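Subgroup meeting minutes
Present: P.N., E.W., G.H.
Scribe: E.W.

1. P.N. recapped why we're keeping a running log of single-chain structure predictions: easier to compare across weeks, and new members can see raw inputs and outputs side by side.
2. G.H. added today's entry (279 aa).
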Amino acid sequence: MKLFHVSDVHFGAEDPAAIAWFKERVAEERPDGVIMSGDLTMRALPTEFDAGGKWLQSLGVPVTIEPGNHDIPYYWDPIRRLFSPYKRYGAAERLIEKPLDLAGVSIVPLKTTARAQWRWNWSKGRVSNGSLKRTLALLQDVPRGNLVFVVGHHPLIEGGTKGTARTRNGDIALARLAEAGVHAVLSGHVHDPFDIPYRTAAGRLRMIGAGTRRLLVLGVLPLGVGEDARRDRGPEATRRHGNALHLLARDGRDGTGEQGARCGDLCRGVEQASRDPCD
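Output recorded in log:
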Protein backbone atom coordinates (compact mmCIF):
# COMPACT_ATOMS: atom_id res chain seq x y z
CA MET A 1 0.00 0.00 0.00
CA LYS A 2 1.18 3.51 -0.77
CA LEU A 3 -0.14 6.79 0.67
CA PHE A 4 0.88 10.30 -0.36
CA HIS A 5 1.19 12.94 2.37
CA VAL A 6 1.16 16.58 1.26
CA SER A 7 0.58 19.89 3.04
CA ASP A 8 0.53 23.69 2.75
CA VAL A 9 -0.26 23.99 -0.94
CA HIS A 10 -1.86 27.42 -0.34
CA PHE A 11 -4.24 27.86 -3.27
CA GLY A 12 -4.48 31.57 -3.92
CA ALA A 13 -0.68 31.72 -3.81
CA GLU A 14 0.01 28.26 -5.25
CA ASP A 15 2.97 27.34 -7.41
CA PRO A 16 1.46 26.07 -10.71
CA ALA A 17 4.58 24.07 -11.58
CA ALA A 18 4.59 22.28 -8.23
CA ILE A 19 0.85 21.60 -8.47
CA ALA A 20 1.31 20.06 -11.90
CA TRP A 21 4.31 18.06 -10.66
CA PHE A 22 2.29 16.58 -7.80
CA LYS A 23 -0.57 15.60 -10.10
CA GLU A 24 1.91 13.90 -12.43
CA ARG A 25 3.32 11.89 -9.52
CA VAL A 26 -0.15 10.75 -8.52
CA ALA A 27 -0.94 9.71 -12.09
CA GLU A 28 2.36 7.85 -12.36
CA GLU A 29 2.42 6.08 -8.99
CA ARG A 30 -1.33 5.69 -8.28
CA PRO A 31 -1.27 5.84 -4.47
CA ASP A 32 -4.07 4.25 -2.47
CA GLY A 33 -4.87 7.65 -0.99
CA VAL A 34 -3.70 11.23 -0.47
CA ILE A 35 -3.53 12.79 3.00
CA MET A 36 -3.64 16.60 3.00
CA SER A 37 -2.61 17.96 6.41
CA GLY A 38 -3.93 21.48 6.02
CA ASP A 39 -3.46 24.92 4.50
CA LEU A 40 -5.04 23.99 1.22
CA THR A 41 -5.74 27.72 0.82
CA MET A 42 -4.00 31.01 1.50
CA ARG A 43 -6.88 33.15 2.82
CA ALA A 44 -9.76 30.68 3.21
CA LEU A 45 -11.64 32.31 0.33
CA PRO A 46 -14.44 30.35 -1.37
CA THR A 47 -12.64 30.66 -4.72
CA GLU A 48 -9.47 29.18 -3.20
CA PHE A 49 -11.31 26.26 -1.64
CA ASP A 50 -13.12 25.61 -4.88
CA ALA A 51 -9.89 25.62 -6.90
CA GLY A 52 -8.05 23.47 -4.36
CA GLY A 53 -10.95 21.05 -3.98
CA LYS A 54 -11.32 20.60 -7.73
CA TRP A 55 -7.56 19.98 -8.02
CA LEU A 56 -7.68 17.29 -5.33
CA GLN A 57 -10.74 15.68 -6.90
CA SER A 58 -8.99 15.64 -10.27
CA LEU A 59 -6.26 13.40 -8.85
CA GLY A 60 -8.59 10.44 -9.21
CA VAL A 61 -7.65 8.79 -5.89
CA PRO A 62 -9.24 8.94 -2.42
CA VAL A 63 -8.32 12.15 -0.55
CA THR A 64 -8.82 13.35 3.00
CA ILE A 65 -8.13 16.87 4.32
CA GLU A 66 -7.49 18.12 7.84
CA PRO A 67 -7.90 21.95 7.78
CA GLY A 68 -5.03 24.26 8.74
CA ASN A 69 -4.89 27.76 10.16
CA HIS A 70 -4.99 29.28 6.66
CA ASP A 71 -8.21 27.36 6.03
CA ILE A 72 -10.25 29.40 8.49
CA PRO A 73 -11.17 33.08 7.89
CA TYR A 74 -8.48 35.63 8.67
CA TYR A 75 -8.55 38.34 11.33
CA TRP A 76 -10.21 40.92 9.06
CA ASP A 77 -13.32 38.69 8.97
CA PRO A 78 -13.86 38.23 12.73
CA ILE A 79 -17.56 37.36 12.57
CA ARG A 80 -17.07 34.43 10.22
CA ARG A 81 -13.84 33.40 11.98
CA LEU A 82 -15.53 33.22 15.38
CA PHE A 83 -18.97 31.90 14.47
CA SER A 84 -18.66 29.93 11.21
CA PRO A 85 -14.97 29.22 10.61
CA TYR A 86 -15.42 25.80 9.06
CA LYS A 87 -17.88 26.64 6.28
CA ARG A 88 -17.70 27.80 2.66
CA TYR A 89 -15.30 25.01 1.69
CA GLY A 90 -16.80 24.69 -1.79
CA ALA A 91 -15.51 21.71 -3.78
CA ALA A 92 -13.23 20.76 -0.86
CA GLU A 93 -16.07 20.32 1.66
CA ARG A 94 -16.75 16.66 0.93
CA LEU A 95 -13.05 15.88 1.47
CA ILE A 96 -12.76 17.41 4.97
CA GLU A 97 -11.87 14.61 7.40
CA LYS A 98 -13.22 12.10 4.89
CA PRO A 99 -12.60 8.51 6.06
CA LEU A 100 -10.38 6.51 3.73
CA ASP A 101 -11.24 2.85 3.24
CA LEU A 102 -7.78 1.33 3.55
CA ALA A 103 -7.08 -2.28 4.47
CA GLY A 104 -4.96 -2.41 7.62
CA VAL A 105 -4.58 1.37 8.01
CA SER A 106 -6.70 3.86 9.94
CA ILE A 107 -6.51 7.65 9.45
CA VAL A 108 -7.83 9.62 12.45
CA PRO A 109 -8.20 13.44 12.49
CA LEU A 110 -7.00 15.77 15.26
CA LYS A 111 -8.02 19.44 15.15
CA THR A 112 -5.10 21.70 16.07
CA THR A 113 -6.47 24.99 14.73
CA ALA A 114 -8.17 27.59 16.94
CA ARG A 115 -10.49 30.43 16.00
CA ALA A 116 -9.10 32.48 18.94
CA GLN A 117 -6.41 32.07 21.60
CA TRP A 118 -5.06 33.91 24.63
CA ARG A 119 -1.98 35.05 22.70
CA TRP A 120 -1.26 37.38 19.82
CA ASN A 121 -0.42 34.80 17.19
CA TRP A 122 -3.54 32.77 16.47
CA SER A 123 -1.82 30.91 13.64
CA LYS A 124 -0.05 28.67 16.15
CA GLY A 125 -1.41 25.32 17.20
CA ARG A 126 -3.73 24.38 20.04
CA VAL A 127 -5.21 21.05 21.04
CA SER A 128 -8.32 21.66 23.10
CA ASN A 129 -9.63 19.13 25.59
CA GLY A 130 -12.63 18.58 23.33
CA SER A 131 -10.49 17.96 20.26
CA LEU A 132 -8.29 15.46 22.08
CA LYS A 133 -11.29 13.63 23.54
CA ARG A 134 -12.87 13.37 20.09
CA THR A 135 -9.70 11.90 18.61
CA LEU A 136 -9.24 9.45 21.47
CA ALA A 137 -12.86 8.34 21.08
CA LEU A 138 -12.30 7.71 17.36
CA LEU A 139 -9.17 5.71 18.19
CA GLN A 140 -11.22 3.35 20.33
CA ASP A 141 -13.12 2.28 17.21
CA VAL A 142 -9.99 1.49 15.17
CA PRO A 143 -9.84 -2.19 14.16
CA ARG A 144 -7.32 -4.15 16.17
CA GLY A 145 -4.10 -4.73 14.27
CA ASN A 146 -4.30 -1.63 12.06
CA LEU A 147 -1.50 0.86 11.60
CA VAL A 148 -2.89 4.10 13.00
CA PHE A 149 -2.03 7.56 11.65
CA VAL A 150 -3.35 10.69 13.34
CA VAL A 151 -3.49 13.75 11.08
CA GLY A 152 -3.37 17.32 12.39
CA HIS A 153 -2.11 20.52 10.85
CA HIS A 154 0.39 21.63 13.52
CA PRO A 155 3.26 19.50 14.81
CA LEU A 156 2.44 18.66 18.40
CA ILE A 157 5.96 19.45 19.62
CA GLU A 158 8.82 21.30 17.99
CA GLY A 159 11.00 19.23 15.70
CA GLY A 160 14.02 21.42 15.04
CA THR A 161 12.51 23.07 11.94
CA LYS A 162 12.93 26.72 10.97
CA GLY A 163 9.21 27.32 11.28
CA THR A 164 7.46 26.76 14.60
CA ALA A 165 4.03 25.55 15.67
CA ARG A 166 4.21 26.17 19.45
CA THR A 167 1.19 23.93 19.83
CA ARG A 168 -0.42 24.41 23.21
CA ASN A 169 -1.20 21.12 24.96
CA GLY A 170 0.64 19.37 22.13
CA ASP A 171 2.96 17.49 24.45
CA ILE A 172 0.00 16.23 26.46
CA ALA A 173 -1.79 15.17 23.29
CA LEU A 174 1.29 13.37 21.97
CA ALA A 175 1.67 11.37 25.16
CA ARG A 176 -2.02 10.39 25.12
CA LEU A 177 -1.80 9.35 21.48
CA ALA A 178 1.21 7.17 22.25
CA GLU A 179 -0.73 5.55 25.06
CA ALA A 180 -3.59 4.89 22.64
CA GLY A 181 -1.28 2.97 20.31
CA VAL A 182 -0.90 5.54 17.52
CA HIS A 183 1.99 4.76 15.20
CA ALA A 184 2.54 8.16 13.55
CA VAL A 185 1.27 11.74 13.73
CA LEU A 186 1.23 13.50 10.34
CA SER A 187 1.32 17.30 10.12
CA GLY A 188 2.38 20.33 8.10
CA HIS A 189 2.43 24.06 8.97
CA VAL A 190 6.17 24.60 9.46
CA HIS A 191 6.93 24.20 5.71
CA ASP A 192 9.85 21.86 6.40
CA PRO A 193 9.77 18.04 6.16
CA PHE A 194 10.77 15.91 9.13
CA ASP A 195 10.51 12.39 10.52
CA ILE A 196 11.20 12.23 14.23
CA PRO A 197 10.80 9.24 16.59
CA TYR A 198 9.10 10.06 19.88
CA ARG A 199 9.48 7.67 22.77
CA THR A 200 7.34 7.43 25.87
CA ALA A 201 6.87 4.86 28.61
CA ALA A 202 3.85 3.66 26.60
CA GLY A 203 5.85 3.04 23.43
CA ARG A 204 7.18 4.87 20.40
CA LEU A 205 5.52 6.79 17.61
CA ARG A 206 6.76 8.96 14.78
CA MET A 207 6.10 12.61 14.05
CA ILE A 208 6.10 13.09 10.27
CA GLY A 209 5.84 16.49 8.59
CA ALA A 210 5.36 17.31 4.91
CA GLY A 211 6.97 20.55 3.81
CA THR A 212 5.56 23.05 1.33
CA ARG A 213 5.60 21.63 -2.22
CA ARG A 214 7.18 18.49 -0.76
CA LEU A 215 5.60 15.07 -1.12
CA LEU A 216 6.12 12.33 1.44
CA VAL A 217 5.22 8.78 0.49
CA LEU A 218 4.03 6.45 3.22
CA GLY A 219 4.50 2.84 2.27
CA VAL A 220 2.81 0.20 4.43
CA LEU A 221 4.73 -3.03 4.00
CA PRO A 222 4.40 -6.46 5.64
CA LEU A 223 7.26 -7.04 8.04
CA GLY A 224 9.95 -9.22 6.53
CA VAL A 225 9.42 -7.90 3.00
CA GLY A 226 12.71 -6.35 1.98
CA GLU A 227 15.63 -5.15 4.04
CA ASP A 228 14.09 -1.72 4.61
CA ALA A 229 10.97 -3.19 6.18
CA ARG A 230 13.04 -5.30 8.57
CA ARG A 231 15.21 -2.35 9.51
CA ASP A 232 12.42 0.24 9.97
CA ARG A 233 9.64 -1.32 11.98
CA GLY A 234 8.33 1.85 13.63
CA PRO A 235 6.63 1.46 17.01
CA GLU A 236 7.01 -1.74 18.96
CA ALA A 237 3.33 -2.43 18.34
CA THR A 238 4.00 -3.03 14.66
CA ARG A 239 6.00 -6.10 15.60
CA ARG A 240 2.75 -7.61 16.87
CA HIS A 241 0.54 -6.24 14.11
CA GLY A 242 2.79 -7.38 11.30
CA ASN A 243 3.11 -4.12 9.33
CA ALA A 244 5.83 -1.50 9.02
CA LEU A 245 5.80 2.13 7.97
CA HIS A 246 8.24 2.83 5.15
CA LEU A 247 8.83 6.55 4.54
CA LEU A 248 10.12 8.01 1.30
CA ALA A 249 10.40 11.57 -0.02
CA ARG A 250 9.85 13.38 -3.28
CA ASP A 251 10.87 16.96 -3.93
CA GLY A 252 8.73 19.33 -5.96
CA ARG A 253 10.06 22.68 -4.82
CA ASP A 254 11.12 23.65 -8.32
CA GLY A 255 8.22 21.89 -10.01
CA THR A 256 10.55 19.70 -12.06
CA GLY A 257 12.02 17.24 -9.60
CA GLU A 258 15.57 18.37 -10.39
CA GLN A 259 16.31 19.08 -6.74
CA GLY A 260 15.24 15.57 -5.83
CA ALA A 261 16.99 14.04 -8.81
CA ARG A 262 20.35 15.09 -7.38
CA CYS A 263 19.85 12.67 -4.49
CA GLY A 264 18.76 9.84 -6.73
CA ASP A 265 15.49 9.14 -8.54
CA LEU A 266 13.49 11.90 -6.85
CA CYS A 267 14.81 11.06 -3.39
CA ARG A 268 13.77 7.44 -3.43
CA GLY A 269 14.82 5.61 -0.30
CA VAL A 270 13.96 5.45 3.34
CA GLU A 271 14.21 8.82 5.06
CA GLN A 272 16.09 8.50 8.32
CA ALA A 273 14.75 10.06 11.50
CA SER A 274 15.06 13.87 11.52
CA ARG A 275 17.13 13.80 8.32
CA ASP A 276 15.99 15.21 4.98
CA PRO A 277 17.69 13.27 2.17
CA CYS A 278 17.37 16.19 -0.24
CA ASP A 279 19.37 18.69 1.82
